[in-house]
Specification:
heterodimer; A: 245 residues; alpha/beta; 6-stranded mixed sheet; B: 308 residues; Rossmann fold; Alpha-Beta Plaits; 2 domains; 4-stranded antiparallel sheet; 28% strand; elongated
């Protein structure tokens, strides 16, 4: 199986504090990989290293074929990123945002024009293309933000709690976009606090106190921990945490 | 006397173009733990800001502990505790300085009211001299709760206290609220996490400025008036779209490791019919189906569908 992320003995220290404590794992191409853990477990720090935004204290990582220590800029070109907190420019229109992010990621003008037309049609946003993002309903913003994050057809898209605060119907429409994206071969790396969403992942890792405590398919994790749901698995594993948030 | 009573509260913004709160009538009894559940943009925060007298309504009225929200706003402010959704303590003051400050604003001291915050504050105590801005998310949340409680309010308003908090810490927070309830405090709490509904005595589901359902967690589930099925098969993504093509099915959506199917109210469609179609027409394998109990999310989706 082809791997798009390979991490070995990755460590990140801030002074005396070891935020990420020697983690090793692989993510396969086309996989939906759930990156779970309690607040303060080290998820964000680990994710920042994988995106080429933070230099590891030790250990190594290959993301989309590039070394996160020596080729951070190349890594950034191969990935997409979306978080709940920041994703789009609210004062720009729908089309402006698509063009801006497409341009930043080096998609040619002609390609941008073609793809944005397709995208707007698919999202049924064509009549809204000149609306400012801040005037869109929350659910639309999130769908647009996700589409923008994969607009340059990255190998991997990183989603940091993408669905917080969304109504249940929109949350599901959002996940259907994720399933479709993975179906089309883009690898999805996602953190979430919704445990039902962990069930949609092919494999899930659970971080506790900076290290990976468990990594398997949701089905195997439930079997191993004799749990009925991923929520129960989360509770059982997080209970062992020493580091308090 | 009801702790909170509102009558047709309305609040609009942008010269009436956006109705954030659109005719809310609500009664919360003293000592109740009442939840407002709804997504971002439903109007929860505006409702809270109205009830804490930070906003004036366009129309309608409300009383808190029998006091009028417009006329008696000063008295109301000394009786309510409010924890806003966004962290709003002083980041440059330490934990203990923030707490002392809020106590002094209300003319009291930490010692006088220590009993009420003891269980929560003891977790913060090791960090008493740390600046509030340097605390982790969970600790900020606990400090904000202590500050909202320091004057022993009779009604506590908590606006999305668990947003962005991991599942275990969320459970812990609800345990703290259950404990506070034993002191007789009325608590109005909002959340976007539907699974927290079961922790409330009663709750209202809010969407687009209106309540689309109100009751105990049990009555809301009992009011679900359609057949709900859980289905699984070997190809879950394809299954989703194929089920949607079957006549008599109102909605099919992902639900953890299964999909939920909500049947139309007047359909004669049976489980065996659905299975027949999926196996013979769409060639699905290992299709398994069973009736299931609706969760709060199923109820919310059903209620918001009716509204549209």
């Amino acid at each position: 199986m082809e791997n798009v992320i390979e991490v070995q003995n990755l460590v990140k220290k801030f002074g005396n504090f070891t935020a990420v404590d020697n983690i090793s794992f692989e993510v396969h191409k086309g996989e939906i990989f759930g990156f779970l853990g309690a607040n303060g477990a080290g998820k964000t720090t680990a994710m920042r290293m994988l995106c080429g935004l933070s230099y590891p204290t030790s250990g190594s990582g290959i993301v989309a074929g590039f070394d996160i220590r020596t080729q951070a800029e190349q890594v950034k070109r191969q990935i997409g990123y979306m978080s709940q907190r920041f994703s789009l420019y609210e004062d720009l229109t729908v089309l402006d945002n698509i063009e801006l992010f497409g341009g930043i990621y080096g998609v040619s003008k002609r390609e941008i024009a073609e793809r944005s037309e397709q995208l707007l049609e698919k999202l049924q946003f064509t009549s809204e293309k000149n609306k400012r993002v801040k005037d869109l309903p929350q659910g639309w913003k999130q769908k647009l933000a996700f589409s923008v994050a994969v607009f340059h057809r990255p190998q991997i898209v990183f989603l940091d709690e993408p669905t917080g605060g969304v109504d249940p119907t929109t949350r599901r429409q959002f996940w259907e976009m994720i399933l479709e994206t993975a179906h089309n071969g883009i690898t999805v790396f996602v953190t979430t606090h919704y445990m039902d969403e962990a069930e949609y992942c092919h494999r899930v890792s659970m971080m506790v106190d900076g290290h990976i405590e468990a990594l398997d398919s949701p089905q195997n994790l439930k079997l191993k921990y004799h749990a009925a749901s991923m929520g129960e698995v989360f509770d059982l594993i997080a209970r062992g945490a020493k580091r308090s948030d | 006397m009801a702790a909170i009573q509102t009558n047709q509260l309305v609040k609009t913004f942008n010269a009436g173009k956006v109705s954030a709160v659109n005719g809310i009538s609500l009664t919360v009894e003293a000592g109740e733990l009442f939840g407002i559940i709804g997504p971002d943009g439903a109007g929860k925060t505006t409702l809270f800001r109205l009830l804490t007298t930070l906003l004036k309504p366009d129309s309608g009225s409300a009383t808190i502990d029998g006091l009028d929200m417009v006329k008696d706003y000063k008295q109301i402010r000394s009786r309510v505790g409010y924890m806003p959704g966004r962290f709003s303590l002083y980041p440059d003051l330490t934990v203990i300085e923030n707490l002392s400050f809020y106590a002094s604003v209300f003319g009291t001291t930490i010692q006088q009211k220590y009993e009420l915050i003891k269980d929560i504050y003891c977790r913060l105590e090791p960090f008493a001299d740390r600046k509030a801005g340097k605390l982790s998310g969970g600790m900020k949340q606990k400090l904000a709760l202590c500050c909202a409680l320091i004057h022993a309010p009779s009604v506590l308003f908590l606006d999305e206290p668990t947003t962005g908090v991991d599942p275990s810490s969320r459970r812990e927070f609800w345990d703290m609220l259950a404990k506070l309830k034993t002191h007789g405090i009325t608590i109005l709490v909002s959340t976007a996490y539907m699974d927290e509904a079961s922790r409330c005595n009663r709750l209202a589901m809010m969407n687009n400025g209106r309540f689309i359902g109100i009751g105990t967690p049990q009555t809301i589930v009992n009011e679900f008036d359609k057949t709900l099925l859980a289905i699984r098969g070997d190809e879950m993504y394809r299954l989703l779209n194929d089920v949607r093509n079957i006549e008599g099915i109102e909605e099919c959506y992902t639900f953890g490791d299964v999909h939920h199917i909500r049947l139309q109210k007047d359909t004669n469609l049976k489980m065996t019919d659905i299975e027949q179609i999926l196996v013979h027409q769409y060639h699905h394998t290992n299709v398994k189906m069973e009736p299931c109990q609706p969760t709060m999310e199923d109820c919310f989706m059903n209620a918001s569908k009716k509204e549209r």
